[in-house]
Backbone:
């Protein structure tokens, strides 16, 4: 199955779920539109367009297959960055701004990109210091302190 | 007299030390991200939205605007020296700019791009200054039906100009409107689609949405490729164009500035459209069209002037009607709304310091940009050598930090990651995120205008076609939709898009 067909089915299902959820909110009538009126219209429109994309996917001669989208690229690197980001969010409030920020920068620069230790440490520490000054000192933002206590 | 009084008000605001400093930060960052491929003005503005929470709305808009028009300047450097557009609006500059660099004329190419940008930027600001006040008086006659129809027209134009499929772009606009309805219904107070998460009662914030769709997703896509840049030249000579260069470029600069400005005003238009249209126009008008594509200086001057003038023109619908012409203006609208300022016809009276201060700051910013992009061009060339392996961890870290400090909540970070992954998949499957974000920003305005119109008319949809401005906008939108279906016009549109892609 080609990529457009898959994606249009996904959006159609999402649009249908939107219609169902909007209808439950109460659509009202044109004289007094309810809370679900606009989201229902938007969801129905998404379904309609998904149907159009689905039909168009039969027209094209050189439709891309699903696997072609990830062919010839380093998709594992994207996956790794996604996983590192998730780990950062999970550990942010426990480990605190400095520790988790340092780990994120070191893991991506050293672990993923293979930069030298000296370069990694200099860039990581200076990024942390500059962002601390901008967000904490200048903008008075609250940063999570975590186990380090600062 | 009003003109001078307004400008005195504007300059007294723009020249305040704090505003001057943030104007410089804005144009500096704008040039920086314009130079660096891989991150655009929308992503950067999203990342910097949290910074604007701690400063006054005027200062915030001065900085964010600086990023936008600064990126138009910076984008040309990468296009000319590397042959890769640093910014979408500089795609067309790559053709002749890179050829000029290969012929050892990178200096004049960069010089004319900077001077052309400066002249066009200034013409654009004068146009903005002159056109905005009369348009405000027209806008005061707009009621909910006119607003609704104009927003629909803006969304249709944006999707009409979509790089890939128009059906997909329209679908994304629908998704954006739906996402914009998440949270409390402003008219009834009923929670919608919050799934029991208290943080969603206020709706999904523009920062996690835009940072995810433009910041995180760009990183996820870029790390899939090993990005390496080959810079043509590092020794730049003769940045000041010769008399012959000026003779060839001044006509295209002036014409493209005017055309670019008006294309920028169009809802859904903007800098990208302006650069493509004026390049084609200058090629047709030229006595030596065969030189285009082989290093014609007019081929650099025209699009670079047009994209800067369009960047200024795009402020008109936002400042006068409160409707963003493109997704960048949508980000500015989001930033204003964070500060409880609703742009529109009343803004010029209620917040004259903001209105005229932002306009005056553009004059100041343009001068700063000329200095940044001519004497300091060497700095940007050096920056082009910073590898993406160093840049992306820093961008990722700043995204995550900025996303957290808005509400001190990890829920925003989960949302950002969610939209980052969604944006990555959307781009893989050729669904553009720009219509989604613009529709999301317009969603509450659109919903209120629709519901108010229907209540006014007692439920009759005829209200949208019985009022001339509203009917005109809807007819135009329908014509554009119809034209995208008609095979001949569709093929022509497809051909134009393919040409643009080949160029890129």
Residues:
């Amino acid at each position: 199955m080609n990529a457009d067909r898959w994606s249009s089915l996904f959006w159609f299902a999402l649009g249908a779920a939107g219609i169902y959820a909007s209808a439950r909110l109460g659509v009202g009538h044109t004289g007094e539109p309810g809370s679900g009126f606009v989201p229902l219209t938007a969801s129905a429109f998404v379904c309609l367009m998904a149907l159009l994309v689905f039909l168009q996917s039969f027209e094209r001669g050189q439709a891309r297959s699903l696997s072609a989208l990830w062919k010839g690229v380093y998709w594992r690197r994207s996956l790794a960055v996604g996983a590192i980001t998730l780990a950062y969010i999970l550990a942010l409030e426990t480990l605190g701004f400095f520790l988790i920020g340092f780990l994120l920068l070191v893991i991506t620069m050293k672990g993923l990109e293979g930069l030298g230790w000296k370069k990694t440490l200099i860039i990581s520490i200076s990024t942390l210091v500059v962002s601390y000054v901008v967000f904490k000192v200048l903008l008075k933002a609250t940063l999570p302190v975590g186990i380090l206590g600062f | 007299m009003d003109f001078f009084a307004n400008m005195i008000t504007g300059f007294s605001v723009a020249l305040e030390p704090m505003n001057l400093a943030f104007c410089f930060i804005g144009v500096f960052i704008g040039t920086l991200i314009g130079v660096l491929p891989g991150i655009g003005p929308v992503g950067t503005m999203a990342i910097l939205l949290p910074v604007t929470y701690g400063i006054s709305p005027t200062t915030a808009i001065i900085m964010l605007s600086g990023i936008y028009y600064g990126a138009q300047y910076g984008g040309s450097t990468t296009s000319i020296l590397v042959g890769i557009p640093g910014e979408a609006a500089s795609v067309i500059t790559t053709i002749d700019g890179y050829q000029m660099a290969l012929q050892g004329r990178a200096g004049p190419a960069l010089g004319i791009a900077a001077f052309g940008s400066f002249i066009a930027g200034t013409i654009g600001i004068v146009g903005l200054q002159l056109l905005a006040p009369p348009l405000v008086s027209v806008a005061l006659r707009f009621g909910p039906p006119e607003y609704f129809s104009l927003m629909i027209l803006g969304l249709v134009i944006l999707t009409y100009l979509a790089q890939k499929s128009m059906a997909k772009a329209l679908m994304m606009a629908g998704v954006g409107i739906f996402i914009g309805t998440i949270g409390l219904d402003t008219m009834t107070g009923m929670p919608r689609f919050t799934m029991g998460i208290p943080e969603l009662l206020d709706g999904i914030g523009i920062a996690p949405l835009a940072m995810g769709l433009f910041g995180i997703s760009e990183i996820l896509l870029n790390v899939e490729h090993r990005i390496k840049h080959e810079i043509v030249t590092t020794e730049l000579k003769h940045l000041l164009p010769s008399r012959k260069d000026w003779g060839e470029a001044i006509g295209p600069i002036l014409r493209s500035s005017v055309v670019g400005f008006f294309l920028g005003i169009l809802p859904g238009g903007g800098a990208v459209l302006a650069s493509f249209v004026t390049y084609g126009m200058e090629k047709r008008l030229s006595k030596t069209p065969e030189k285009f594509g082989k290093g014609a200086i007019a081929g650099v001057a025209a699009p670079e002037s047009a994209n800067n003038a369009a960047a200024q023109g795009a402020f008109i619908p936002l400042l006068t009607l409160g409707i963003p012409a493109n997704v960048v203006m949508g980000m500015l609208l989001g930033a204003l709304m964070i500060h409880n300022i609703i742009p529109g016809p009343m803004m010029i009276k209620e917040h004259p310091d903001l209105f005229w201060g932002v306009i005056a700051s553009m004059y100041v910013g343009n001068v700063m940009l000329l200095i940044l992009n001519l004497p300091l061009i060497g700095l940007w060339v050096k920056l082009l050598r910073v590898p993406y392996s160093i840049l992306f961890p820093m961008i990722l870290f700043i995204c995550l930090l900025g996303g957290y400090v808005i509400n001190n909540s990890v829920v925003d970070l989960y949302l950002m990651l969610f939209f980052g992954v969604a944006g990555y998949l959307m781009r893989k499957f050729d669904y553009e995120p720009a219509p989604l974000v613009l529709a999301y920003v317009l969603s509450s305005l659109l919903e209120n205008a629709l519901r108010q119109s229907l209540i006014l008319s007692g439920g009759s949809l005829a209200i949208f076609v019985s009022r001339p401005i509203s009917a005109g906008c809807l007819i135009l939108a329908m014509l554009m939709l119809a034209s995208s279906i008609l095979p001949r016009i569709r093929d022509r549109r497809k051909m134009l898009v393919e040409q643009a892609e080949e160029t890129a």
About this structure: Chain B touches chain A through 64 residues (CB under 8 Å).
